[in-house]
Structure formats: C-alpha cells, structure tokens
Write a structure and sequence with these properties.
This protein is mostly beta strands. Among the domains are: about 1-25 and about 35-155, Methylamine Dehydrogenase, Chain H (7 Propeller); about 330-475, Methylamine Dehydrogenase, Chain H (7 Propeller), CATH 2.130.10; about 685-765, Outer membrane usher protein (Immunoglobulin-like, Sandwich), CATH 2.60.40. A 5-stranded antiparallel beta sheet has the order 1-10-9-8-7, with no helix packed on it. It has a 4-stranded antiparallel beta sheet with strand order 2-58-57-56, with no helix packed on it. A hairpin with a 5-residue loop joins β39 (about 450-455) and β40. InterPro entries: PorZ_N, Reg_prop, Secre_tail, WD40/YVTN_repeat-like_dom_sf. Keywords: Signal.
Length: about 775
C-alpha cells in the first residue's frame, strides 16, 4: 500500500508576524459564537468563530487574539491547550492548524493538511488528543499524527473500509489501543502498532455513527450521533448503553474528576462514579437566547460556551447566578454595513446577496439581527428582540445635527428610527402617508418594503431608495413630510439600488442595477449613466457604489470595474454624461485600474485618497487621481480576515478607516483625517515621546495644505511638509537621515495663505 504519511510533505510554518502592522491595525471582532474551549489549571481558552480569548480564573484578566496578532480569518472548528508543552493548538474547518506558544506569544501556521491532495471539503479538524509526545488529530478524512515538541507531522491513517477517507470525530487511548469514533463505526488498533497507516489494522468494534469517545477514570465511554451514552465492556469487547440523552451530544470533555457533556439545550456533569451531579438547562439562564456549544470546569467554576451569547460562568453547586465573561465586541463578525461618525461607529448585519434578494439569506428568509454601536471605548449591542421586527437591516444614517437620532434602513421591513440608542419607530407605508414608503410592486406582498442607503443632505433632509417601485427616490424633510420622486422616465423597468451619494451641488447620485441615476430637485432634472460608449461608458450597468471625492468628482464602482465622472458640475448642461476609466502603467503596459473587479464600496479619506473594497480581492488604497496604488491589502499580506469587503467608512476626526468583511471588522489607523476650518484644535501626540515608543508623532487638526516646519530649540530645521488633509506624521528623524536627539522641538504651522498660524512643542526622550 502506498504510504500516505504527511511527513513526506514539507512542513511549512508561516510566522504570522504583523509587527509593523500592529502599529496601524486594530481588530473589532465578535467573540460571541464559541466554537470550542480548553483549559489549564487556572485559565480557560475559548475559540470563537475566527478569534480566541483567554480568561484567568484567579485574576479575571481577559486576553484576546485575532488576525491582528496573526490568526487566520478562516473558521475555527476546535481548540486544545497542552499543559505539557504550554502551547495552544487551533484547528480550522479548512484543515489549517495554528500553534500558539503561550510562553512567548509566537504564532505559527501549519499548512500540511491544507496542502494534502484531498478534496477541500473533507479537511476539517475535529479534535486533538494528546498522548505522550504525540497529538492525534481527528479530521474529516482520517487521523494525523503531530508532534508538539518537534513540530513535525507523522503518519496519516485512512481507516475507512478499503482505506477510504472517513470522518473521525474524536479519538481516545485505552488499555493499549487507540479508539476512533467515526461516522462509520468505532474502530481501534494497537497504539504501538508500527503499521497503523494500514487500514486493515483497524478493526470495527461497534457499527453506527459516533460523535465522541473518551476515557473517564478507568473506563472507556462513547456517545453515538443520537445521544446514546455507552460504556465499553472489556470482557465482551463491546459497548453497552448507560443512558439516553434527549438530544445529540455536541461536546464531550473530561476535566479533573468530571465528565461534561453538552447538548444544544442542556449540560450534564457526571462524577467519577457516573452519577449526574448537575444539569443546566438553557431555559434556566434568562440572560441568553441561544443554544449551548460546549462546557468545561476549572476548580468549582463551570464555563459554558454558547452559539450567540459568548462564554458564561457559574459555580458548580449554585444554580442561580450566571456571569458573562465574553470580551466586548460586535454581536457578529459578518458585518454587512457600517457608519462612522465623530462620536460612534454603527454596525448592522442584515443580508442580501448580489442579486438583492433578501429571501436568499441563511435560513431562506430575511434575517432578524440586532444592531451594534461602538462609542470608541465600548460596545453596545442592541438585540434582535428590540428592533421592532425590522429584518435585513442594511444601512445606517446618523443625523449630523443630532447624533442621538439614527435611522437604519431595512431591506424588508421599512425604516427603523432610533433615539438615544433605543429603537422607537418602524416607518412603513402605513405611517408615512401617500408620498412615503412603498411595498414592492413586483409581488402582492404588502409586508415587503425594501429600503436602502439613507443619507442626510447638508440641509438635514434624509434621502433614501425604495427598491422595486417606480417612485424609488424618497426624502424625509426636516419638517417630517415625505416626498417621492419617480425614476420611471430614466428607468422604465423596476430595479434594485446600491449606494447613494450627494455632491456639493446637492445633486443626488443613486447606484442601481441599471446604471447611475442623477437627480437635482432644482428643475427636477433626472439623468442616467449606464454601459455603452454613448450612454455613459460604464463597464456594466450593475453599479454597486458611488462616492463624491474632495474635488467633486463622482467615482463609480460596478460589478465589472471602476469609472470616474469628473464633470459633475456640468450635470444640468450636458445631455449625456460620460464617465472615464483610469489608465495606469503596470510593467510599462497600459492597463485599466481595477479591470473587471467586483467593487463593493468606495470611500474617500481626508487626503482625497480612495479606499476601494472588492467582492473577493481585498481592499485597494489609491491616490487621489487613481494613478498610484498605495496599498492592496489581502488576507495574505495584512490582518484582513477575509477578501470579501462588505463596507468601508472613516472617522473623519481621527482618520481611522473601518473595514467590514464577511469574517470580521478591522481598522487601519491612517493619517488622512478631514481638514479643519481653522487651527484652533491642533493636537500633537504622543507628547512626550518616550524611549520605548517606536511609532511616529502625529500632528492633527490641520487645515488642508498647511505648511508644517519642525525645528530644534536652536532653530535648525529638521522636518518640513505640506498637509494633505488634517493630519501629518513625523518619524522623529532629521529628513529621514538620522534620529533626532533628546530635546524640545518646535512645530510651526501656517495656513496655505499665511493668514493663520499656530506654534506647538513636542519633547523627544531617547
């Protein structure tokens, strides 16, 4: 038989060291969906969807680990902490294994299983069993040996009939044998057998589908897929039933002298005599709404993982008190849309696919999720039970005149209004009048009201799109009156709409599946830009995002590329407006910028750079004219957890760029803040600059094109630049040649026209 040992493959360790990136990246991950837990004598290690956290049961200290620290953005399937090696091992659904050395915090990616020539769908890691120096890795194709000391793989065991792949859910070593609980029986072989990669050495002890197998005390136990708990009889070489669970077991774990079995609705705790000493039912915990996923015990504390409510603790012999110890974060990782204001970041999780059909969400019906708000210090999660039944929440608009008033569009239920973080009203056709919101016209369903992309104009009016109706552009005036604008003259067929932007001339630009529609209420002018050289020159009529830059140019993102309309000021005079592609030179070959890319979002920063998100290629940062690609961030070169970018927004005060992906949200802490109107709020930080600080000095609150000069105390110039936006950085060097010495440095700031000046100081301590 051909030896399928993984040791014939090169072990590839990729050190995920974003040392430089740690200075500019920040993670905003959800830790609510607990995929697995493990423990040391004092610490619990919990794996969420694609991040980790640990909780010290003595000090109550919580530490998080995510893609910023080097984890993968892929979905975690299991976790194990090795006391003997002081290492934590994470298994993923795609076969990736990550090993964290808890002594020094280093993180290594082990990709041998991913590289194995097997179908991608059967590489999931299900369980780790430590036996001596060997870790037995249970996978959806068989068992793999891995040595935590040498960090090398051993043999691979394909133990199905005739050596085919078989799902192995868990393994156990008992009485000189290694047992495997599989979807096709419990199989065993001598643990010291030198030929375990020969399938014929594995004998079937019991048929059926088995979810777990474990040693407890001096006995061997197994649970089948229906929740039947059995005990191994060494005399008859078979398993016999002890008890039947009302639900299948999701997790089985031994901790000290306890066996903890978890089902969706209950947790059962047995002592060494197999007496059930505690049962926790989900309906006993008023604080949660989701099912259990796993549980374990440290000392007299029970730790309970849940599907959507994070990690809970309770005492072993107390039935009433439960505490949630989950790190602060958004309620979910798949953030659909975000809105950043100066005071807060809002996130919603509504979903519709590329065809704008909310019924194709997971579960086959429009999603009912909550809303998250970050005040830049802590998270507030408004649960789904509080959003007045609004489904498929798609976009957020914060009233610039009153940040406590927020509107959230629902792509199924209407428009949700929040006041002081509390949903107070769901606006529908029934309460907005004849000129208000409408149900879709393509089906007789009065409860299907698809609202998208609310945006406030400079006068405080709220504009939005009403999908699949003729009067598709709506505005809620500051006096509470609604107005509807029909787009039928330029869009004879009903359609769905993407982004909405308003330019300096108060023209509204609406992205749709049939092009970009422009509307200006002065004269009621409607125009459309679509594909075709004579109709607008778009690469596709399916427009997903529009953005107005600092020069009042319209950037248009479609499902097949990018276009720019540079003459928005000629909106009324030009009969047909024509957009242009951006041609760049790459390897001395002329190419179209972002050719054929599915563009999901375009956001303009304070320096007029464009942040462009894509459906599967990550995020691009391009220069104001698009000729230079400053960054192209993907999962391979950055902490991005996914190359699917759902939305981008920027805190204009700080320059922090928030990036919502299908696998979590992160931010890039850049310097492109929006320019100020005066120099009254210039800030220099950090100040003083201490010896341990390795970053740059930031000067923020500037006017655009401010001149900034930095001198030593003797008046010698060490740095000079012109601000592009509201912030500049200084690397504390003299024009990049050498680090400046300790001392006080003067910062002289002047407006472009010299009419306004400001002087600041910064102290450097080497």
């Amino acid at each position: 038989m051909k030896n399928n040992s993984l040791c014939i493959l090169m072990l590839l360790f990729i050190q995920m060291a974003f040392a430089q990136n740690k200075l500019v990246w920040q993670g905003y991950f959800s830790y609510s969906e607990i995929k697995g837990i493990s423990q040391s004598a004092t610490t619990i290690f919990a794996a969420s969807e694609n991040a980790l956290f640990s909780y010290d049961n003595k000090t109550n200290i919580i530490k998080t680990t995510n893609t910023i620290d080097g984890l993968s953005g892929q979905t975690i399937s299991t976790i194990y902490h090795s006391l003997n090696n002081n290492k934590t091992i994470i298994g993923y659904e795609n076969g990736l294994i990550i090993v964290i050395n808890d002594a020094n915090g280093s993180i290594l990616n082990v990709v041998d299983i991913i590289s194995k020539q097997l179908p991608a769908g059967i590489k999931k890691v299900n369980h780790f069993l430590e036996a001596g120096d060997v870790i037995y890795v249970s996978c959806d194709f068989g068992i793999v040996q891995f040595n935590l000391k040498t960090m090398q793989f051993g043999d691979t065991y394909f133990i199905g009939d005739n050596g085919v792949e078989i799902i192995v859910n868990q393994t156990a070593v008992f009485d000189g044998f290694i047992y495997a609980a599989t979807n096709n029986g419990i199989k065993r072989a001598g643990v010291n057998n030198k030929n375990l990669n020969d399938f014929s050495q594995w004998l079937t002890v019991s048929s059926g589908n088995w979810s777990s197998i474990t040693t407890f005390g001096s006995d061997l136990y197994a649970i089948n897929s229906t929740g039947n708990i059995t005990k191994f009889n060494v005399v008859f070489n078979s398993f016999s039933t002890i008890t039947q669970l009302p639900q299948p077991s999701l997790d089985s774990k031994i901790s000290a002298n306890y066996w903890i079995i978890t089902t969706a609705d209950s947790i059962y705790i047995y002592n060494i005599k197999m007496e059930m000493i505690r049962q926790i039912n989900r309906n006993q915990i008023l604080e949660i709404n989701s099912s259990f996923t796993c549980a374990t015990i440290i000392g007299d504390t029970i730790f309970i993982g849940t599907k959507d409510d994070g990690l809970l603790t309770t005492l072993l012999y107390t039935n009433t008190t439960f505490e949630n110890i989950t790190p602060s974060g958004p309620s979910k990782n798949n953030v659909f849309s975000i809105q950043a204001s100066a005071s807060a970041l809002w996130a919603v999780y509504g979903f519709y696919p590329a065809n704008y059909n909310p019924y194709q969400a997971p579960g086959g019906f429009p999603t009912l999720y909550g809303i998250s708000k970050l005040d830049y210090k802590s998270w507030l999660n408004i649960p789904a039970s509080k959003v007045l039944g609004a489904r498929s929440l798609s976009n957020v608009a914060v009233n610039p005149r009153n940040n406590d008033e927020v509107y959230v569009s629902s792509f199924f239920s209407g428009l949700l209004k929040l006041e002081n973080d509390v949903p107070t009203q769901l606006l529908t056709p029934q309460n907005t009048g004849l000129n208000g919101l409408q149900s879709i016209e393509v089906a007789n369903n009065p409860n299907d009201i698809r609202i998208n992309n609310p945006v406030f104009d400079r006068d405080g009016n709220l504009w939005l799109t009403n999908n699949l109706v003729a009067k598709a552009l709506k505005v809620l005036k500051t006096n509470g009156e609604w107005q509807s604008i029909s787009l039928a003259s330029v869009l004879p067929e009903l359609t769905a709409f993407g982004g909405l932007a308003i330019d300096n001339n108060n023209t509204k630009w609406v992205a749709s599946r049939r092009g970009v529609i422009g509307y200006n209420e002065k004269g009621g002018v409607l125009k459309v830009i679509t594909e075709g050289s004579e109709k607008g020159n778009l690469p596709s009529p399916d427009v997903r995002s529009v953005a107005i830059d600092n020069k009042n140019q319209l950037w248009i993102g479609t499902n097949k590329g990018l276009r720019v309309l540079s003459n928005v000021g000629n909106y009324k005079s030009e009969v047909q407006m024509i957009a242009s592609s951006i041609i760049i030179l790459e390897d001395n070959v002329a190419q179209e910028l972002l050719f054929e890319q599915f563009i999901t979002d375009i956001t303009v920063d304070g320096a007029n750079n464009k942040w462009i998100g894509t459906a599967d290629s990550g995020i691009f940062l391009v220069s104001p004219n698009g000729q230079e690609t400053k960054y192209h961030f993907t999962v391979n070169n950055s902490p991005l957890p996914s190359n699917t970018i759902n939305d981008i927004d920027i805190n204009s005060n700080t320059g922090e760029v928030f990036i919502a992906t299908a696998k979590g949200m992160i931010s890039f802490k850049g310097t492109a803040t929006a320019a100020k109107e005066d120099l009254n709020n210039v800030v220099v930080y950090p100040n003083p600059v201490r010896p341990e600080y390795k970053g740059t000095v930031k000067i923020t609150g500037l006017l655009d094109k401010s001149n900034v000069k930095i001198t030593d105390i003797g008046g010698n110039l060490v740095y000079e630049t012109t601000a592009q936006g509201g912030t500049i950085e200084w690397d504390t060097s003299a024009f990049g040649k050498y680090e400046v010495v300790s001392g006080v440095y003067m910062i002289f700031i002047s407006a472009q026209d010299g009419a306004e000046t400001k002087v600041k100081k910064v102290m450097i301590i080497r």
